[in-house]
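quick one, two chains, predict together pls
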Amino acid sequence: MSSMIQQSIDSHRYLGAGGKLECVCCGSGIFARDGFCPKCQAPVSISKTVHQRGVPAQFLPVLGASNAGKTVYLGMLLDILTKGVGQLQGLPNNSLSVAVQEQTVNALEQQRFPEKTPNDVDQWKWMHCELNLNKKKKQFFDIISPDFAGEAIAYELEQPGSFSIVNHLVEQANGMLLLIDSLRVRDAGSEEDFFAMKVATYVHGLRSQDSRRNKKIKSPLAIVLTKTDSCSEANDDPATFANSNMPGFVRFLNRHFTTYEFFASSVVGSSATLVDHHGRLQEIPFHVAPQGILEPIEWLIKNV
Amino acid sequence: MQVEQAIFTSARSRSTSGYQLTARSGGVHDEWTRTLVKWGPSQGALMHQGPTAESLNCFPVDDQHFAVSRTIFGGPEYSRRGELQVFTRFLIVKNPLAAGYNHNPWLLLRVCCILGHLRFLSGVETELPALELPNQSLLGRQSLQGRSCQTAANDDSISNLVQVLQLGHPAALVGKAVSEQSVGQITARLSPEVRSRLSFTTGLRPSAARPFQLHLLPNTNQLNDRLNTMGITQVNLN
């Protein structure tokens, strides 16, 4: 397309759209009318809402391997927050958040788990939620996190820059959650230990650039062992479980992070595996009994 | 001519889980791997959800090569969510395309399908052999154009779409009558220079991660915003 035509199109969009914004994820210039940031593909609606609210965004990215339980965790978290519990009350800030909650709740009500998150960044759902801490009436947080595809995180760890949105969010994160499948930790050898170490190394590499050499990362990291309804060892004592089964990861944390904590969480009370005539295996959740969903967030808020 | 190949699907391997290149031939280097992963369709990428859904695709891999691929549903997806894996088999071909294919990647794609080079493979080793393709097409040019447009209105639609593509703008052909044959009709009318570098998909959902120049869509339900954001011109086929 010729540059003159492109300029004309850009001008029309600028004039018709109410102006230019800055993407809250990567800082690129975006038009309010655009659907997604052309650089990092974060939804423009997130940036618009943040700018309109005038409240600094608190990024709490939820990281984890494929099938660690990120979608279910985020959906249940939003569902619990919107209903309000204890000192916390959450309100979704835009329709993207509602979509996360809706996807998870609808799936669980139909006794199935949500569909696998696609790799395409522009297909991800996002959590953008205002958290009101009743104790301090004037203090509230705007929490933002995409529902990452696990593969995107894995590729970014292997080839930094392949999914730049992971980089942008981890760099400016006020705290982070790392979800780890407790069943895989228990049953699948050292794979989860290696993946967790890769994530921790990646985070350390990004966050320590501005720090003095060998200085520990201060940003809090909540490590959430998921699916602990089926792994009682992790449920009873997540820190000891991690120390015994993921020694490399724990050693790295001790060496490079000042503030981290292990948590156990689960969403379903019990489940079974169904096999159909095509050979498809499907986990069926029998009932929803969330445990340990809020505690990591409460801890992060306290330490941010 | 020798072509490299690779498979992109969801699996659990030693190093990673989920959508990845599960197999490749020896000539697929890291640069191509990154590009194939970027273009690789994952869960929800196929427009149609039936078990026989299929998409034929073509896109540039680098300045000197392009990939043709076929995306279908494979076996059960490993993560026990009751879904079928999305399976894609890529063949990587050197540009410019041999004159024996009339500079038409659609012609090459049809030949690859007929020869069985894009069919589903299960339980494959991680290393695949490079493949040999004939230097000339096995098909006559007439058979690739398919049936002519049945109405003057459809003929106009195809002509309009061709004009958009000739200008280098992305476009989508939309309508119930849209079929894979439409690609043959479109490529037959493009200049050889534009045709040889055309990227297209017959059945993948539009996504910023896969900037195809030509999409075939049965309808634009819930896609209008995305198409507008991506700057894709919609041309309706009646």
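The mean pLDDT of chain B is 89.
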